[in-house]
Amino acid sequence: MERLQKVIAHAGLASRRKAEEMITEGKVKVNGKVVKELGVKVGLHDKVEVNGVPMEKEKSVYFLFYKPRGVISAVTDDKNRKVVTDFFPEIPERIYPVGRLDYDTSGLLILTNDGEFANIMMHPKHEVEKIYVAKVKGMPFREDLKKLEKGIKLEDGVTAPAKTKVLSVDKQKQTSIIEVTIHEGKNRQIRRMLEAIGYPVIKLKREQYGFLTLHGLSAGDSRELTPHEVKLLRSMAMNEK
């Protein structure tokens, strides 16, 4: 279920703000009844009419994208920086990213026009495991990483226990490569977690999302998810409590 104004906006009929105006002005019907409240949610089987015209639902599409560094995880950017949807010029559907990766973070990102699927993937109770590989300053002591494995206090709360693994250490450059697995999605979480224990991130990449990997893709590449993969992701998210 998604908010009515969001559904109208995703269908390309109006901006979110304009859709809200149309709703409050009584120009939108859901299942034959005029709706003027902005909090109304609709599902796949609800019939929506805008100005008396039935709204056609887009075919649901799902993409796995290897986001390069220096790209915004958004549909538009007010500073005219490159956004993830710039890499999908031939896709007619109005897709958007599921969650986000920071401007300076590369790696696996899912894009879709299926709001219900996106909500399930991002819901705090359901989020699937995500594996990141970080290059950091310093060589972490085991007791430092254990703090992340127990959960560490950040300004927006205590993180859930993470899994960590040191992949390599460069004593000469005083840097390390660390793998961190989390199932949350706090803003800039990996960077803040590692900085909190004294190891600032130099470079960060999301290598895996659930069972999905970047195998066979280069930065900027994408592929469509198979129906089986989408089904597995839904199942995985709903089973994780």
TrEMBL record:
The EC designation for this entry is 5.4.99.-
Matching entries from PROSITE patterns are given as: PSI_RSU, S4
Where's the RNA-binding S4 domain? 2-67
Isomerase listed as a keyword: yes
Listed GO MF terms? RNA binding; rRNA pseudouridine synthase activity
Sorted alphabetically, which keywords does the UniProt record give? Isomerase, RNA-binding
Is Isomerase a UniProt keyword of this protein? yes
Q: Which GO terms describe its biological process?
A: enzyme-directed rRNA pseudouridine synthesis
Q: Which InterPro entries match?
A: PsdUridine_s_RsuA/RluB/E/F_cat (IPR042092), PsdUridine_synth_cat_dom_sf (IPR020103), PsdUridine_synth_RsuA/RluA (IPR006145), PsdUridine_synth_RsuA/RluB/E/F (IPR000748), PsdUridine_synth_RsuA/RluB_CS (IPR018496), RsuA_PseudoU_synthase (IPR050343), S4_RNA-bd (IPR002942), S4_RNA-bd_sf (IPR036986)
Task: Give the CC-aspect GO terms.
Answer: cytosol
Report the PANTHER family cross-referenced here: PSEUDOURIDINE SYNTHASE FAMILY PROTEIN-RELATED, RNA-BINDING S4 DOMAIN-CONTAINING PROTEIN
Q: Which family does it belong to?
A: Belongs to the pseudouridine synthase RsuA family.
What protein name does the entry list?
Answer: Pseudouridine synthase
